[in-house]
Specification:
The complex is a heterodimer of chains A (684) and B (305). Chain A contains 26 helices and 19 strands. Chain A folds into 4 domains: 172 residues, no CATH class; 319 residues, no CATH class; 43 residues; 88 residues, no CATH class. In chain A, strands 9-12-7-2-17-16 form a 6-stranded antiparallel β-sheet, covered by helices on one side. In chain A, a hairpin with a 3-residue loop joins β10 and β11. With 684 residues, chain A is α+β, with helices and mostly antiparallel strands. With 305 residues, chain B is α/β, with parallel strands linked by helices. Chain B has 2 domains: 203 residues, Rossmann fold (3-Layer(aba) Sandwich); 87 residues, Helicase, Ruva Protein, domain 3 (Orthogonal Bundle), CATH 1.10.8.80. Chain B is 47% helix and 15% strand. Chain B contains 13 helices and 9 strands. Chain B has a 5-stranded parallel β-sheet. In chain B, strands 3-4 form a two-stranded antiparallel ribbon. In chain B, strands 6-7 form a two-stranded antiparallel sheet. In chain B, β6 and β7 form a beta hairpin. The radius of gyration of chain B is 20 Å and the shape is globular. The two termini of chain B are 39 Å apart. Classes of the chains: A alpha+beta (684), B alpha/beta (305). The interface between A and B is medium-sized, with 26 and 21 residues.
């Protein structure tokens, strides 16, 4: 058998570090057994390098591989798809560490190492993980440099330095290519299930579900206002509307004869009439903002009321909310303009009004009777609404995360017995009261408020900001948003959930804090907000730089975007960056420029030549002075001082440290100049 | 310290008349821990100079007259079988001394020359597998007759490179020659010379040489000299890095003998001839000294750009 290739010791350190670090994210995300497999293989490899163990034979290698395949199949139920694929890849890669018989294998391992590192970004793309990948890149590159240096007496640290230089040189090119190279849609869908959102809104709502959501501090989305920020009471982020009520659960629904395509417009492609009409009637205060949505695996997007948007694959639904053409599996950035006070839906279609009046045939008799009674007493819809609102405000309603369970007639039970609930209880009972009185109403679900990051100009909207409110249709003003929860707990709208719970009683607040684990330490809070500031900018600048932003940027640079122009731009960019480094290297390698005293010597030399003093081409300074003094005794004194000064600077004070810069003594500089002038005056 | 050095030079000058510069160079060579090669015709005072140096610096002194039938053992020593102890006992040769005068080194065969030159470089002697250090300091002052004389084995370049300096004394001036003839026996004078510097003082002076400052400008000048000797088209082969280090150390010692604790370009220019000439071979075929002068004229003392 041929001699087994021995990885140089200095390269091995980086090879094993790089492969371990590249496997760690998968060890943390993937099934438990993968950590055991990776650590087992890595330990074996280290022992082989130390000469304690041999490389495993073929039988053992195949059985480890078979085990890994079996476990993957067991954990995922398949060998295909990104998650099972990454798991298998990590196993196979670590197994390859034990199959390095030739130098070529070492190259394969390093190329695989880069690839495994890249797969980390399929699962997560936030700033911290990107930074991690970037750091591991150094180790892998150091290993690559190391195996190309077979000499034994090399220190491993020097490779890290080379790797740093290499990566630093590649960095501008990387940024340039990131900005310029067109985004080609992948040939296959790389959607990892690991990104699946654990919490979030769903397409139906029953009492207690939003309260459940409120126990999570997970980020829902970030908002960055462009220009003026909307005042706090207007920050209602609509996500979806529920029109169908079955007595217990509110769901998203359309009448059978209406298809989804009738109510959705994709303004970037085509504007149907209702959308153009809506656009035309836009008036009143408007706010522009960008939302960076965390992956939800759902289509719903969030925006303040009456949103307008022109972005590919984002649609506006006729109930004034946004949807994405496909489920949001990567963080998505979109810019919206909202007219928060404009009237809309005055000419709503009949089916919509009727659909939003439906109630189950039976159930909640007390509420219905109450509604009919109050509506009869009230002169108008407005007065009736005010009457219901007054009920919430004046009677003893409680705002709580832990409402008592409700009986079969939920609204009756809530309004007349428990009177303690979370936003969905209020919204639901309010909507039922409206429908019972003949006013079309539907539930709006989304988020309300958001926490301002002290460092940035952006809002953080978390799952515990989840909220439900109501939209009613009135003949004169169309669809109007109303929030019964604001009657019960106005702090909820003004300051957020935490404040609202605190004012209701401390035990609720502490239960809430415990549930979401918010840290009370100020330093941790500051750290968290600083980290969030970075993450926000990362998400908005780097991750938010998608194909569309790129096309716009390229249009600005190139005018018309054609493949030829892009190719030329890329070639020119690479050329300029390459030229920059070439010039930098030449500049570094050039001969050092003259020191000031050396210039001074040559100034004196040429001045003496001009005055006709006979001197050699380049005598030693002392010799020069002697020669000139002999020919022009008048200048001898000044020249002697010039010489002393020169030798002092150039030969006595000047340290021989070739790397360090010499300190320039301005006094010496002035003296040298003065003595030269005096000497020359005495010669001419 | 500088007084001691000056007094030493004066003392040696009282024996070897009219050769102040050569004596100062010889002292510099010793202070720079270098070996000295004196090349001259017989009877020019080479031996007297070596003897005087040894006396003045209170060094152990041995003299070996090199001949063509000499063997390495005659210099390094031999192991002798002692019948009583039934063991070989090393018997040190004349090389175990502080100042060795190797008279007419080019009369010995290359083998013998090589044995000495190895001891010079390593400052140790290996005899029958036993390595022993030579005394510290250890100087070799070798004299050589010009190679044009018959019956000589010229030293190869590689071995010449081990001598820091090569000096030649030359005929004395008329004035000095009169003094010489009128005075007493020179050899006797050298023997009677009083030590000026103790062994400790010599060690101290040698340590001082290392501390003499060589600035960046100066080192740059030396480097440009070395580079020009290699690429300037003046010599068959340029100066070696060892020659470069020697040049710097010799310049430092020269500066110290002049009472300065920093080197100026003139120091380098003075020692360049003695340090470089014996290592170089002029490409044009003329004397190495002429080419060395040319070297000095070609390299700017102060960097031009």
């Amino acid at each position: 058998m041929a001699r087994v290739y021995q990885v140089p010791q200095h390269a091995f350190i980086w090879l094993i570090t790089g492969s371990l670090l590249a496997s760690i994210p998968q060890m943390m995300n993937g099934p438990v057994w993968i950590a055991a497999v990776v650590l087992f293989l890595q330990c074996w490899r280290v022992l082989v390098q130390r000469g304690r163990l041999r490389m495993p034979g073929r039988v053992l290698r195949i059985s480890v591989l078979a085990t890994a395949v079996g476990l993957t199949l067991y954990s995922y139920g398949t060998l295909f798809g990104p998650d099972a694929g990454i798991t298998l890849l990590v196993c196979a890669f670590n197994l390859k560490l034990l199959e390095m018989n030739k130098m070529r294998d070492a190259y394969v391992v390093i190329v695989l190492n880069y690839f495994v590192l890249a797969t980390v970004l399929i699962v997560r793309q936030d700033f911290l993980i990107s930074l991690y990948v970037f750091v591991v890149l150094f180790f892998v590159t150091a290993a690559l440099i190391g195996i190309n240096q077979p000499e034994a007496n090399i220190r491993a640290r020097s490779q890290l330095r080379y790797a740093a230089a290499l990566v630093a040189q590649a960095f501008p090119l990387m940024i340039f290519l990131f900005v310029v190279v067109p985004r080609v849609a992948p040939l296959w869908e790389m959607k990892s299930d690991q990104k699946k959102a654990k919490t979030g809104m769903s397409d139906s709502m029953a009492p207690g579900e939003v309260a459940e959501l409120s126990r999570s501090a997970e980020l829902a989305f970030r908002v960055q206002f462009i220009g003026e920020a909307a005042p706090k009471p207007e920050r209602y982020w609509r996500g979806l509307t529920y029109s169908w009520y079955d007595g217990r659960r509110w769901s998203q629904a359309l009448p059978q004869n209406i298809s989804a395509s009738d109510v959705v417009a994709y303004p970037s492609r085509f504007k149907p009439r209702w959308y153009s009409d809506l656009e035309r009637s836009a008036a009143g205060p408007q706010y522009q903002y960008r939302i960076i949505l965390e992956p939800t695996s759902r289509e719903w997007l969030y925006a303040m009321t009456t949103p307008f948007i022109e972005q590919n694959n984002i649609g506006v639904v006729s109930d004034y909310r946004l949807i994405s053409a496909s489920p949001v599996t990567d963080s998505l950035s979109y810019t919206v303009k909202s007219y928060t006070r404009m009237p809309r839906g005055i000419d709503a279609p009949r089916w919509e009004k009727e659909f939003n009046l439906r109630l189950p045939a039976e159930g909640n008799p007390r509420s219905r009777a109450q509604a009919r009674e109050w509506r009869a007493q009230a002169g108008s819809d407005d007065q009736y609404i005010a009457r219901v609102m007054r009920m919430f405000r004046q009677q003893k309603f409680f705002y709580t995360l832990t409402p008592p369970p409700l009986g079969p007639d939920q609204v009756d039970d809530f309004l007349f017995r428990t009177r303690a609930g979370f936003c969905e209880h209020y919204a639901s009972s309010f909507a039922v009261m409206m429908r019972a009185a003949g006013i079309p109403a539907r539930i709006v679900a989304g988020y309300q408020g958001g926490e301002e990051n002290p460092l940035g100009t952006h809002l953080l909207v978390r799952q515990y900001d989840a909220h439900a409110w109501v939209e009613v249709w009135l003949p004169e003003s169309g669809w109007v948003e109303m929030d019964p929860t604001a009657m019960v707990a106005p702090e909820r709208i003004e300051s957020g959930l935490e404040q609202a719970l605190q004012s209701q009683g401390s035990e609720f607040a502490s239960a809430f804090n415990e549930a979401i684990g918010v840290s009370r330490l100020p330093i941790l809070k500051q750290l968290a907000s600083a980290m969030d500031y970075i993450e926000f900018n990362w998400a908005s600048i780097v991750l938010g730089y998608d194909g569309m932003t790129q096309t716009e940027l390229l249009k600005k640079w190139l005018g018309e975007v054609s493949p030829l122009r892009i190719a030329l731009l890329i070639a020119a960019g690479i050329g300029i960056i390459g030229l920059f480094f070439a010039v930098l290297l030449l500049w570094r390698g050039r001969r050092p420029s003259l020191e000031w005293w050396q210039k001074e010597y040559w100034r004196l030399h040429s001045a003496l030549r001009k005055r006709g003093v006979e001197i050699p081409d380049h005598p030693a300074p002392g010799r020069l002075v002697e020669l000139v003094s002999a020919q022009a005794p008048a200048a001898a004194e000044a020249l002697k001082q010039w010489r002393e000064c020169y030798e002092g600077v150039a030969y006595r004070a000047n340290s021989a440290n070739l790397n360090g810069m010499n300190k320039t003594n301005s006094f010496d500089k002035q003296s040298l100049k003065r003595f030269r002038r005096i000497a020359l005056r005495n010669i001419s | 310290m500088q007084d001691v050095i000056r007094q030493s030079i004066t003392a040696v000058s009282s024996v070897v008349l009219g050769k102040e510069e050569q004596i100062r160079l010889a002292v510099s060579c010793l202070l720079a821990r270098g070996h000295l090669l004196i090349e001259d015709l017989p009877g020019m005072g080479k031996t007297t100079l070596a003897h005087a140096l040894a006396r003045v610096f209170s060094l152990d002194y041995r003299r070996v007259q090199f001949t063509s039938d000499m063997l390495p053992a005659d210099i390094l020593g031999v192991s002798i079988f002692n019948p009583q102890t039934r063991e070989f006992e090393p018997k040190d040769g004349p090389v175990f001394t502080q100042l060795l005068l190797a008279d007419e080194i080019n009369r010995a065969t290359p083998k013998t020359q090589g044995a000495l030159l190895e001891a010079m470089e390593e400052r140790q002697v290996t005899l029958d597998g036993l390595t022993r250090a030579l005394p510290d300091p250890f100087f070799v002052v070798a004299t050589q007759n010009p190679v044009t004389q018959s019956g000589t084995f010229p030293l190869p370049e590689s071995q010449l490179d081990r001598f820091l300096m090569r000096l030649s004394l030359g005929y004395p001036s008329a004035e000095m020659e009169l003094k010489l003839l009128a005075g007493s026996d020179r050899r006797q004078l050298a023997v009677n010379l009083k030590p000026v510097a103790s062994g400790e003082q010599l060690q101290h002076a040698m340590a001082e040489v290392r501390k003499v400052r060589a600035s960046r400008d100066l080192i740059d000048y030396i480097q440009r000299l070395l580079a020009y000797s290699r690429n300037g088209g003046l010599f068959v082969a340029g100066l070696s890095p060892r020659a470069g280090i020697g040049l710097l150390n010799a310049s430092r010692a020269w500066a110290l003998t002049g009472g300065r604790d920093y080197v100026i370009p003139e120091d380098v220019q003075v020692v360049l001839g003695p340090v470089a000439e014996h290592r170089l071979q002029s490409l044009a075929g003329g004397a190495a000294a002429t080419a060395t002068q040319k070297l000095l004229e070609s390299v700017p003392v102060v960097r031009r750009q």
